[in-house]
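User: I'm designing a mutation panel for Pentacotripeptide-repeat region of PRORP domain-containing protein and want to avoid disrupting the core. Could you give me a predicted structure to guide residue selection? Please restate the sequence first so the numbering is unambiguous.

Assistant: Good idea. Sequence first, for numbering, then the predicted structure tokens:
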Amino acid sequence: MEDVGCEPDVITYNALINCFCKYEQMPKAFEFFLEMKNNGLKPNIITYSTLVDALCKEGMLQLAIKFLVDMRRVGLLPNEFTYTSLIDANCKAGNLNDALKLAKEMLQVHVDFNVVTYTCLLDGLCEEGRVNEAEELLRAMIKDGVAPNLKTYTALIHGHIKDKWMENAMGFLKEMMGKNIKPDLLLYGTIIWGLCSQSKFEECKLVMTEMKDCGISANPVIYTTLMDAYFKAGKTKEALNLMQEMCDMGIEITNVTFCVLVDGLCKTGLVQEANNYFSRMPEFNLQPNVAVYTALIDGLCKNNCIEDAKKLFDEMQGKNMVPDKIVYTALMHGNLKHWEFQEALNIRSRMSELGMELDLHAYTSWSGDFHKVA
């Protein structure tokens, strides 16, 4: 621009800074920020707000606060965009009290909350288990003429489900749909997760049907969540039917799916079936990861198949996988049950070398098994 006699102005610099912030190139954004100041141009509220927002999204909260201090020093007042960026970042960092202080400051300087501000605060309250305050904030939001959106209701519904208030969560879902706000895949998944956690399988089926009627297909996470809940409720047939449904409908089957499947079958004593599914993983273009190996080794040990577990452990190590504490603990107990005392001690020593300490449950179990064979 300068080569053709055009000097960049504040608008030009703001556009450049915004572009580099958008593509997460903060050093370049800072370079242009300093350049505009060196050229005698004063950064405005847009300049500062853009940088504050980008820093917040990058997790550089302390630096964002320094820019907030700097903008005040030069006589610029933060707007709703600036405040909301900082409130959101503080909530996500678990600094709810700091977020609430910023919200209070907004009110004191007569900067109105927008829907994003309300949603960030509401989500932060829900994450801290303060769902009653979140409900009050929703009512205040509506009273102030700010319409809640899908993200607002999703945060509120998730918060209530997390705190076991399923009935209230469904009430907010009904309220939301009454305002013609349609749930998306994320919200449906959250609701199914909540219903599964309370073994409300008939309601789950209704929600799954509703999803299909709305043209939304359940994803692998939803299917796997439901499968896990079926296994935990002792509904093995229903869990296996879901696996078949995933295959029939072309739903992606992941390592997480197989982990749930293998673990669920082992815990119901169907070790051979678990082994069969484990062997079929290559058919789905999958190789078992540490979690799947762990589920099967643990299941084999608990079902008195210690030799098969040892072979699987060797296979796992042959693939340069690092066994975790669950694997070592399972093998240790499995060996003790089969009177392989020295081998159990060797595993315990190996765990100590790796810095793996037994938790209270494992230690109590170890002591009990030890006394049985001693």
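For picking mutation sites, this is relevant: The radius of gyration is 28 Å. The mean pLDDT is 90.
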